[in-house]
Amino acid sequence: DVAKIQTRVLSAILSSQNAGNVNPEKMDELRNSLVNVSALYNDFTAPLGLYDLCLAILQTCQYNETATITKLWRSILCEELLPCRTNSNEVSACLKNLQRGSMLEEESVIVSSNAVTKENGDSLLSFDDGEWIAAIKTRIITLGKEFHGKGSDFVFPLHFIAECTEGLAHAYKSLEGNSSPEHWPLKTLVESGADFPSILEAYHYIFTASQSEASDVHTRLRNLSNIGEMIKMWVATANASPSNGLGETNPAKLQLSRYSSAITSQIDAYKAELESLVGCRADQVSEIYSLFNDIEKALQRNW
What we know:
Layout: H1 2-14, H2 24-32, H3 37-45, H4 51-61, H5 66-79, E1 84-86, H6 89-99, E2 109-111, E3 125-126, H7 132-147, H8 158-173, H9 184-191, H10 196-212, H11 217-239, H12 251-276, H13 282-302
Parallel strand pairs: 1-2, 1-3
C-alpha cells in the first residue's frame, strides 16, 4: 500500500508545478527507492499541499488523530474556495472561521462588490456567484468513494464535512437573490457512498453539539430542518425501486426497516425541541414540525 501511495505522490508532483519546490535529492529518492511513510507525509504531501494524499497516508497507517484529519479537511475545502472575494461581511466571517486551523490561513478573503484581479491577471474567485459548489461536491464525492466504507471512515469524518458544507450553504443562501441546489451538502454525502444511518448520525451529532454549546435558536432550528430533510430523503430512497432493475434489495429499505422504530422515537424528541424554541418565526417552526409529522406518517404507513 505504501508503494502505491508513493507512486501516486510522485505522479501528483510531476503533473503539478510542485516539482521545482522539492529538493532534487529527495526527488531522486522518491523516484528510485521506497520512502518511509512518515517521510512521504512530512517531506512531500503535507508541505506541497497534497491534502488528499495526506488522507490516503493516514488511512494506510490507520492513524486516527482528529486534529490532523480536521486540519486536512479544512484545507481541502479552503483549497476550492480561497483566495476569493465576497460582498458580505457575514460570508467573510464564515470563510475565515473555516480557514482558521487549516494549512491555508494566509490566503485572502476580500470583501468587495467589485471584481478583483490576481497578480497573474486572472480574476479572483467570487464566493457570491456559487461556482465553487460544484467543485466542492466533486471533491467530497471523490474522496468519499475512496475512503468511506473501506474500514477507515475516520479519514472521511461525516459530521465535520456536513457541518462545514451546511455552514457554507447557509452563508451562500444568506446572500440576497442567491439560490443553490436544494440540500446539496446532504445529497453530496449520499453520492459519496455514505449510508443513511451514518449520515443521520452525523446530522444528529451536529444537532446535539449545538444544544450543548448553547447555539442561537436559529442555528438549532436549521439543524432540525436538516435532520428532517435527511430522513425525508432516506424514506423516499427506501420507497424507490432498485436502480439496477435486477431485483436486488434496496439498501436504504433494509436500513430503514432496521432503524424505523428508533427514528420514530427520536422524531418525538425533535418535535419537543421545536416546541421549546423561542424567538424563531412561527411559520418556519410550523413548516419543520409538519415535515416531521409527514415523516412519522410515512414510517407508520410503510414500516
